[in-house]
C-alpha cells in the first residue's frame, strides 16, 4: 500500500458515510474512533468528522474522500482537536488515502520539474482542479501532493502593477505562480508587520485583476489596508518544481 496524504495522519478505515451540508462535508469511518475526542463533540455526533469546503485544503480533502469512496480505499484522519465547521462535530485537520500498489504501479502520467527534464514522480490521482497526487521516484512509500496555484488578484503600489506584490495572510500556506511576473510567490513565515501593505503609508494602491487583465487604481492609500493583513510576497523557487511550474506529461 502507498499512503497518499495531505498531512501526517493516524488510524485507517473505509468510509461508512459521506454527506455534503452546504459548505461543510461530514463523514463517518467504518472503524470507531479510538482517540479522545474534543469536549465540543456531542454524543450523537461522536463518530463524525467535518471538513470545511471554503478552503483549498478542505476542497483537497473532500476530493480524497470522494476518491476513497469510489475506489474503495482506506483513509486515515488527523484531528484538529476542535469543532470549527459544525459546533458539535470534530474537525478533520488532515487526511491520508491508502492507494493500492497495483494502482501506483500502473501506467500513469508523470510529474516533472519546471524544466521538463527531471522526473519528480508518477501521478496516480488528480482532483481535476490543478491538484495532483503522486508517488515520488525517490522510492518513498508515502505519496505527495502538488497543487499549481495560478496567479490571483494581488495588490501593488506601482501604477503598472509591477515590483512588489501584496496579498492577504489568509493565503499564507500557498505558493502561487505568476506568468506575468514569471516567478513563484509566497507569503514569508513569521512576523510580517514590516512587510505589510499598510506600512507603505500614503502611497496609492493598485489591484491587478486577473479576470480583466489590467491594473486598476483602488482609490485608496496603503495605510488603510489593515483588515486582512495584506503582506508583501516573496519571490521564491518552488521546492519541487523550481523556477517554473511543474509539467505533467
UniProtKB/TrEMBL annotation:
It comes from the Bacteria. This is Uncharacterized protein.
Amino acid at each position: 500500500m502507498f499512503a497518499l496524504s495531505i498531512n501526517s495522519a493516524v488510524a485507517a478505515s473505509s468510509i461508512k458515510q459521506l454527506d455534503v451540508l452546504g459548505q461543510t462535508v461530514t463523514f463517518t469511518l467504518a472503524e470507531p474512533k479510538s482517540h479522545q475526542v474534543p469536549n465540543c463533540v456531542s454524543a450523537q455526533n461522536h463518530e463524525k468528522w467535518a471538513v470545511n469546503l471554503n478552503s483549498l485544503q478542505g476542497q483537497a480533502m473532500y476530493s480524497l474522500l470522494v476518491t476513497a469512496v469510489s475506489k474503495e480505499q482506506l483513509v486515515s484522519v488527523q484531528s484538529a482537536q476542535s469543532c470549527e465547521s459544525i459546533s458539535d462535530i470534530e474537525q478533520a485537520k488532515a487526511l491520508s488515502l491508502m492507494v493500492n500498489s497495483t494502482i501506483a504501479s500502473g501506467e500513469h502520467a508523470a510529474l516533472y520539474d519546471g524544466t521538463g527534464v527531471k522526473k519528480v514522480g508518477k501521478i496516480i490521482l488528480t482532483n481535476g482542479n490543478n491538484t495532483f497526487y503522486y508517488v515520488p521516484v525517490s522510492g518513498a512509500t508515502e505519496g505527495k501532493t502538488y497543487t499549481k496555484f495560478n496567479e490571483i488578484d494581488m495588490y501593488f503600489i506601482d501604477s503598472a502593477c509591477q515590483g512588489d506584490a501584496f496579498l492577504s495572510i489568509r493565503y499564507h500556506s500557498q505558493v502561487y505562480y505568476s506568468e506575468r511576473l514569471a516567478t513563484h510567490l509566497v507569503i514569508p513565515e513569521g512576523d510580517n508587520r514590516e512587510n505589510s501593505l499598510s506600512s507603505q503609508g500614503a502611497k496609492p494602491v493598485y489591484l491587478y485583476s486577473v479576470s480583466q487583465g489590467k491594473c486598476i487604481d483602488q482609490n485608496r492609500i496603503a495605510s488603510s489596508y489593515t483588515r486582512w493583513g495584506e503582506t508583501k510576497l516573496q519571490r521564491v523557487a518552488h521546492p519541487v518544481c523550481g523556477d517554473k511550474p511543474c509539467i505533467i506529461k
